Amino acid sequence: MSIISEISENLQKGRLKTVKELVNSAIDEGIDPSKILNDGLLSGMNIIGEKFKNNQVYVPEVLVAARAMNAGIELLKPLLNKEKIKSKGRVCIGTVQGDLHDIGKNLVKMMMESKGLEVIDLGTDVSPEAFVNTAIEKSCHVICCSALLTTTMDVMSEVVKCAEKAGIRDKVKIMVGGAPITREFCERIGADCYTSDAASAADAAVELCAVQ
Amino acid sequence: MFKINIGDKIFYAEKGDILSDVLIKNKIAVDHPCGGRGICQKCKVTVNGKQQLSCKYKIDSDISVTLPEAGNILSETGAIQTGKITENICYVLDIGTTTLALAAVSSDEQKTVRFETSVNPQRAYGADIMSRIEYCRENSPEPLNSVLIDEINRMIKKFSLPTVDKMFVAGNTTMLHLFFNVDCSSMGIAPYTPVFLESKTADAHSMGLDGIKTVISLPSVSSFVGADIVAGMNYIGLPGEGKYNLLIDLGTNAEIVLFSQKISLAAAAAAGPCFEGANISCGMSATDGAIYAFKFGKNGEKKISTVSGKPAKGICGTGLIDIISELLKAGIIDQTGYMEDEFFDLENGITLSQEDIRKFQLAKSAIYSAILSLIKTQVVSFDEISQMYISGGFSAKINIENAVRCGLLPKELSTKTIALNNSSLLGSIKFANEANDLSVYIKNSKYIDLSSNAFFTDLFVRNMMFTDN
Ligand code: B12
After folding, report:
1. A180 neighbourhood in chain B, CB within 8 Å
2. Mean pLDDT along residues B29-44
3. Cβ contacts (< 8 Å) between B452 and chain A: which residues?
4. Buried b (16+ CB within 10 A) or exposed e, A166-178
5. What integer is the mean pLDDT of B339-350?
6. Which of B2, B198, B424, B434 makes an SS bond possible with B94, Cβ 3.0 to 4.6 Å?
């Protein structure tokens, strides 16, 4: 097995220490850092994402894999030429105001990062204004809102209205998700995209960024 | 205007009306656990011979509707009906989000003379508290209050007793708000402020209640730790010096309290309605035909027990715990919760899906991790815990060994576990008889918000696995 596929394999098993060791030896061997990143770390994370979508693995496995991925990326960062790894787009994400559930949101964030998107994490209890202001200041292509409570999902429609009021509605796409959200709800409040799981959310966000 | 035929009744609706709204308006009991969002599939009815989701069905012609067969809720209260009717009778009521339980208690004999359980008719407005609060916010508490009062009157009538002086009432904080027709919408969104927590005394007649003079509610601790939990602690009583008791209510909101003579710590694990069968594909409440126990025999044959011995219709909470534990033991489900096949077939087309296992992992981990978080926050060792009490309508039927195997309850406490059934009703009956001082449970209580707790989230993610057990 090549060292690259070994990185991917070990990442999928969440073996943080081994992944770090392998990334270091790959660097020593002189392998192109962007190859280590894309074909080793990110591709391993993609496989986990797909498996998660198909219910073959669950939240804990995704999180340990993501931890291993991030540890690997940290090692590569100083070597990666900023110009070379062009981000596929910029996204801000958060759990809406009044809501503190963040596990689903964190999974979406990790899957998006593994697809090469730049993600700004606003945390939980995020006001509509904070979403929109961040989108303006950091010129984000997509705003991602997560909600787990029936009593907070309506904040998402405030986010849509707030983006309209700020005059950025034609420049930014709004994605919504979380257990109580449905496609119908997304359409009703005038948001752009809903997906039921984190891996599909990342694919959809890449697409949304590509058309802009 | 269109005609809707249901059995021997006719109702009317406008074009475009949603069928579930018509059912709710006319007080027809069909479950709507997800509050009409079309995701739980539990409000299915037959329209002109075809199965339809009533919350998604738009009326555009005359229709004939057949409702699903209603079963009897098997909810045990744990109250034993022994006493004789005497002069001094009072009522004790527990308002659960799912079930109502009413007892007539003789204060001379300190015994329960009658009791009655019933489904909380507010279920039509959504299965969990949040959906009820949301309904209250969008409309008013009035409809939720009036269906509840009607149902309580019906239960009281069944007792055919002369007017009694007092009714003691416990329930979670939201239910008590709705019982007194008080707006509960502020409890739907952070910081979850209740309108009242204290014990209330009210004139029953002006509340629309028949056959009682005065209503007295028990006090609550916070929005999410209600009088039902206070009553539960009252039933259990304080532990010995330096010791702790744990009370775990295995409901949707899964309140947990760890209490000693000096302090009580409470949290809501928010496990979800999976033990009530609400988000499980073949899930159902513990009514006729529900699989409530499961075991593999010596030769791998499936030993299935159903409520009332009826043909299997679905899986209830205790059945779910058994099935998952047996599948773990047999290696059909691995430690990560993965199952090779997409479904496990039980009988009669009833199956357990991979998705169901995932839902179960969230629920069981939420409860287990909340217990551990309280213990760690208060820096208590398992040895210092005298007893762990589990309550909830189906708690007495839980196979504790299986609950431990699947990681719902800590194994360190398995020999100290006692199932109480309806601890809220039992504790309220005790209060009615003994008028105990409840302030000891409230005075030094601390609400632990698990969202900001140092331990919870990590434990929650880790314990979704089945490894530790
Ligand atoms: C864990 C949990 C908690 C933890 C949260 C810990 C944390 N750091 O997140 C704690 C215990 C703190 C908690 C608190 C509360 N909770 Co809670 N909680 C849960 C629980 C058990 C699991 C939620 C979860 O993590 N799921 C796993 C993740 C991975 O799934 P997910 O978030 O849906 O995310 C996936 C998708 O939806 C999607 N996705 C998510 N976000 C986004 C965003 C976008 C843009 C896209 C495209 C996709 C997407 O991708 C993810 C992965 O595929 C559920 C019940 C259950 N069994 O589901 C209740 C639940 C969500 N909670 C509930 C409630 C009521 C509460 C409380 C009010 C309880 C209380 N009495 O205090 C508080 C509220 C706190 C607050 N202000 O937010 C209710 C909500 C009911 C309702 N009708 O609204 C639930 C459903 C339980 C119930 N009672 O039925 N809770």
Report:
1. 34, 37, 39
2. 66
3. 100
4. bebbeebbbbbbb
5. 93
6. B424
**Pocket flag, ligand 1, residue B457 (CB < 6 Å):** yes
Residue A82 pLDDT > 70:
no
Q: Are residues A29 and A73 in the same domain?
A: yes
- DSSP assignment of B331-385: TSB-TTS-BSSSEEEEETTEEEEHHHHHHHHHHHHHHHHHHHHHHHHTT--GGGE
Task: Give this prediction's pTM.
Answer: 0.88
Spatial separation of the C-alpha atoms in residues A17 and A11, rounded to whole Å: 10
A60: preceding bond cis by omega (within 30 degrees): no
Q: Could you tell me the residue range of the domain that residue B289 belongs to?
A: 280-346
Domain total for chain A?
A: 2
The reported pLDDT for the residue numbered B124 is 87
- Nearest 10 degrees: Cα torsion A128, A134, A135, A139: 170
Mean predicted confidence (pLDDT) in B219-228: 94
* Statement to judge: residues A194 and A138 lie in one domain: yes
Q: Whose CA is nearest to atom 66 of ligand 1?
A: B270
Read off the tokens for A189: 């409040």
**Is residue A52 domain-shared with residue A131, that is, in the same domain?**
no
Q: Give the model confidence (pLDDT) of B163-178 as tens digits.
A: 999 999 999 999 999 9
Cα–Cα dist B244/B383, whole Å: 9
Tell me the pLDDT tens digit for each residue of B439-449: 999 988 999 99
Q: Are residues A165 and A98 part of one domain?
A: yes
Q: Could you tell me how many residues make up chain A?
A: 212
